[in-house]
Amino acid sequence: MPGATPLSSDLKITAVEAIYLRLPEVKTQCDSGQDALIVQVTTDAGIVGYGEVDSNPMAAKGCIEGPYSHTATTGLAHVLIGEDPFRTEYLWHKMYRANIYAGRRGIGIHAMSGIDLALWDIKGKALGLPVWKLLGGGFTRRLRPYASSLFGATPAETGERARRFADQGFTAVKFGWDPMGQDAETDVALVREARAGLGPDLDLMIDAGLVYDAKTAIQRAKAFEPYHPFWFEEPLLPDDYLGYAKLSASTPLRIAAGEEESERKSFLQLMDVGRIDVVQVDLTRCGGFTEAIKIAALAADRGLPIVNHGFTTYLNVAAALHFLASIPNTLGLLEFVVEEGTTLRQAITEVIRAESGFVAVPEAPGLGIELIPEGIAKFRVG
Ligand SMILES: [Mg+2]
């Protein structure tokens, strides 16, 4: 790929580091907030940008910090050192080509996502502007958070959780994953109690967590209909595109998916073959801002709305706020983790809060979120 003549005013990347953080005790549960991989990109001007990767952390760290092996398999830091962090489109493609054996989908793209977020953070900090303004956005200055939680261990416990989130002022709540998928009776009871706890007026999202085949999902969608879910998320395995198409054609419920996807061509499969209704984009996996904006445009061309996915740290939330504020096709909704069992996210950055039922899009330069060095040092592994 051709380079360009550097200008004397160009910033230069001097270091790229992947910092692994982990709670002392990690439980066997579907809560990806128990550890975190933070990407730190340093420049010669002293401006430091931060991003995050939600993936297999040490594999993504290897993709970033690993050795130069050959021209199609390279630790990404090698191709970034000395480059101008403002050239995000160019650097995205340079990284993609440099790690193409491992990086066309999955971990390689996840690793690029964290770097891309950090580069946009640097651009914003250097210019004194929030990322949403650099992306040309400003469609909205606030988003309506939906409380995102795992199901309770039982239907009754799920109902209690629902009441608690409603009491906290949330107007939309999602429950997901285990124990959904055990049997029809339990599945319906989980949704029934969630709805009972929320009352009739709040939005309820159901995240099945990849547990069904298409015919079972069609049966469950019909059984859940009386409880008016706003969407039915990831009932099928991510590669079951034909199953998604069958399900989507058979139910009036919105079908949501996308958090497993990385890079826009896999989203095209979900949209064009799977015929999903709501496209869920995780900034820390999909390829960062540079790719997410393209995914949003492809969805807009198909009349499909975008929501974020994020179950990790407030870096991911901040990135989602800038992204969602910069596209025309949001639902105005923000996934907002309320999982009560993990404390890592509150320790490593400032806390993003909902106020009066909404979360404000950051106005400070870059991602607009400060890291807490003591928290990073406390939970850093290695
Ligand atoms: Mg989900």
Describe it.
- By secondary structure, the protein is an alpha/beta fold.
- It contains 15 helices and 14 strands.
- Strands 6, 7, 8, 9, 10, 11, 12, 13 and 14 form a nine-stranded mixed beta sheet that branches. A three-stranded antiparallel beta sheet has the order 1-2-3, with helices on both faces.
- It is globular and about 60 Å long.
- The two termini are about 35 Å apart.
- Magnesium ion binds near residues 176, 207, 233 and 234.
The gist of it:
The chain is of the alpha/beta class and 382 residues long.
List the topology elements.
Elements: E1 13-22, E2 35-43, E3 48-53, H1 57-65, E4 68-70, E5 73-74, H2 76-80, H3 88-98, H4 100-103, H5 107-127, H6 131-134, E6 142-150, H7 155-167, E7 172-176, H8 184-198, E8 203-207, H9 214-224, E9 231-233, H10 241-250, E10 255-257, H11 264-273, E11 278-281, H12 288-301, E12 306-308, H13 314-324, E13 333-337, H14 344-348, E14 359-360, H15 373-379
Parallel strand pairs: 6-7, 6-13, 7-8, 8-9, 9-10, 10-11, 11-12
Antiparallel strand pairs: 1-2, 2-3, 4-5, 6-14
The structure holds magnesium ion.
The site of magnesium ion has 5 residues, from loops.
